[in-house]
Structure formats: C-alpha cells, structure tokens
Amino acid sequence: MSKKKKIVLAYSGGLDTSVIVPWLKENHDCEVHAYCGDIGQGDEELRGLEQKARRSGAVSCRIDDLRRPWLLDYVWPCLRAMAVYEGRYLLGTSMARPILAKGQVDYAHEIGADAVAHGCTGKGNDQVRFELAYQALGPELEVIAPWRHWHIRSREDALDYADQRGIEVAASRTKIYSRDKNLWHVSHEGGALESPGNAPPDDVWTMTVDPQRAPDRPHELTLGFAAGVPVALNGEPLPAEVLLAQLNELGGRHGVGRVDLCENRLVGMKSRGVYETPGGTIVLEAARTLRALTMERDTLRLCEKLMPDYADLVYTGRWFHPARRALDALFAAATQQVTGSVRVRLYKGSAISLAATSPHSLFREDLATFGHSARFDHADSYGFVKLYGLPGAVAARVQGAGA
Questions:
Q1: 126 is catalytic
Q2: CB atoms within 10 A of CB 65
Q3: Residue 97 annotated as catalytic
Q4: Helix (H) or strand (E) holding 46
Q5: pLDDT at 174
Q6: What would the DSSP string read from start to end of 380-398?
Q7: Ramachandran bin of 227, using left for φ above 0, alpha for ψ from -120 to 50, beta for the remaining angles
Q8: How far is CA 96 from the centre of its chain?
Q9: Is the pLDDT of residue 176 over 70?
C-alpha cells in the first residue's frame, strides 16, 4: 500500500483556504497539514483556527508567532529603504508573504512533506511571492496551486463549494471583500471596490475612522529611532510589535493611513486596492524627517534612486533574491546614523513631523544661518558658481543659448 502524500497548505481560515482543504483531499491521495503564521492578524482571525482547519479535514494545524521576527527581519529592512510601491503602497502584503512561505517550508521539512500548496489566484501577485520563496527555500517540494486547476472561478463559486460541504466561512454574498490583515496594514479588495468608479463604502474600513469624524484636537507623539528603525514611543523603549500596535491604535483613531490605489500587478493588469496603514504611515513620516537631518546628501540621494528598485523586488516576490540582499546591506549601512527623536502631529487623517533631534545631526546653524557666520565666507561662492556653471556656459557660447 502506497504512502499518502503529505501536503502543507498556507492556511488563513478564509474562504479560499477553507475550501482548499477538502479539495486537496478529493483530488489527491493525501494528508493536509495547515500552516499559519501569526503576523498580527488579531484574535478574531486566529481564535479557533486549529479546530476550524481540522473540521475542514486537515490532519494538523501549526500556528507560529512570527510578529517580532517579521517586523525586525522583513518590515524594518523595508523601512530602512523607505520602500513604497508606485508612490503610495506601503507593501503590507508584499512584505508578509516571504516569512509565511518560509514558515510553511520549514514545517514541510519538519514533518517530511512532499508538497506545499497555496490559495493564490492566477491573477494575483501572491502566487509569485509564495512560489519564488518555495523555489529558494524548498526547491524539492511539489507546488500545488488549486486556482489553476479547479472549476471554481469566483468567490460565489467558492461559497457554493463551502455550502455543499458544510464548511463554515466568514465571507458572505453581500459582504464579499477580500481582506489581508497584519500588524502593518489591512488591505481590502473585491465587491464594490472592483470598480475604481465606486467610492469605498463605509463598511470597508476596519482600522481607521473617517478623518472627518476624527477628534477635533490633534495628538502629538514622539518616536525614537536607532539606526533607521523605531525603538521607542514617547521616550519609552518598546518591543517592535508593541510599538507598532500602539501606533496603529493612535493613527487609526485619527484617521491616518488610508490609501485608495489602482496599482499595476506583476501579471500585467491594473487592480484597485484600498489600504489602511496607520502605524506605518506615522513611522515613514518620522523616518523621512530624521533621514533628512542625519544622512549626507549623496548617500541620501543614492538611497532615493535605489528605493524603487528595492520596492519592486519586494512587490514582485523576489525577497530571497541576491539583488535584494545586496541592496539591503547598502540601506543598512546608509542608515547607521539615523538615530534620534521625531515629534509627529496626528490630525484629521494626516501625520506631519514637527521637529527632530539627533546626536548625529548634520545641520549646523553656524553654517546655515542667514546672519553672520564666522565659518562661511560668501566670497568663496564666486569661484564655485563659475566652475559649477562652466559646462552650460561653454555650450551656450558654442551652440547658442536656446540649443
């Protein structure tokens, strides 16, 4: 008698992965082992998840607390790079997939599994993020992607499939948003959001209040940084996951961090995503201000030039690619002196830096002052300006000023 195949499924307990468990059993002679990484989804999603997986037919369900390693080893590197995709998306889902795939592969190796499976659709970016991680970390494992093979073609089909097999799911036919939540953000897709012509309905938002209904009094906080990443809130050192959770609560209360974006997916189509990233928005605003104070000009500009490349590597699933690791080393070195404190004001959907201090500040009042400066001789600028403009002056003489 042949041994049953062991498959480890990246499991969230949502609609897709809930129906994948019985589908795998119906279409493969296998045991299904569910894997879930806790990266801040919250008790609502994680409570009873192991029992839910078993009721769906899984043999086991591993839940690992990955919150701190995720922030320290995945989110903070992106923060050091100031990585933002297409100017607005703070990469909340993109940063999460590599550590979830790594945990899944580690579990597969631990139990001697033959295959890994995921619930990503053929239209999305996540299939690439998971599978490139599988290739890097478990190339010997078979990859099973049910959305490429089954007859289910919509969320309504998936709901029908779940109903027929008595599988409990949280999604409904009237409130059918696809959400992804973690400590950094929550994303919303589907339903009324599929058309960019529709404003997001009020029931979409879950982390942030409507900025119009936010408190009429602003709230100020001080964020402390060490080597480019936040380490303290209002002078109190905090673990990364605690600090970000508190920033999420404060930012959410003031309506900070809403983004409505029609982005370019890796597979080539545009997709409308609505995001809430309250804590991350505050952190990036403060980090941007502190970098301006502490980073030397050419290094800062080099980082700004390379940021889109880094963001693209993360967005397109190439976390374990040598190019990302090389860029990560550069950003880590470049932000070594980004240490200090930034005061930020939250008000009606905005997070605005007010002041910053650092022991490594490169601002020198005796040089920058409009008053008398003993260390700056205005006469020195004559030769500087003449030489700086020399290439343009020569071109104007030879080719004409309008050339």
A1: yes
A2: 13
A3: yes
A4: helix 43-46
A5: 59
A6: GHHHHHHHHTHHHHHHHHH
A7: left
A8: 7
A9: no
Check: CB of residue 144 under 8 Å from CB of residue 7.
Answer: yes
- Residue 133 has φ and ψ, to the nearest 5°, of -65, -40
Q: Is 234 left (phi over 0), alpha (psi -120 to 50) or beta?
A: left
Least confident of 54-63, 309-318, 332-341, 374-383: 374-383
C-alpha to C-alpha distance for 124 and 129, rounded to whole angstroms: 10
Coil, strand or helix at 18: helix
Indicate which residue of 38, 114, 126, 180 is catalytic.
Answer: 126
Distance CA 233, CA 236 (A): 5
- CATH code for residues 185-295+335-357: 3.90.1260.10
From the list 178, 258, 272, 353, the catalytic residue is 178
For the chain, the structural domain boundaries read 5-178, 185-295+335-357, 368-399
Question: Token pair of 132, please?
Answer: 């490139």
286 in Cβ contact with 357 (< 8 Å)? no
DSSP SS3 for 197:
coil
The CATH code for residues 5-178 is: 3.40.50.620
Helix (H, G, I), strand (E, B) or coil at 150: coil
Q: Is the pTM of this model over 0.70?
A: yes
Spot the catalytic one: 12, 16, 67, 272: 16
Least confident of 16-30, 173-187, 360-374: 360-374
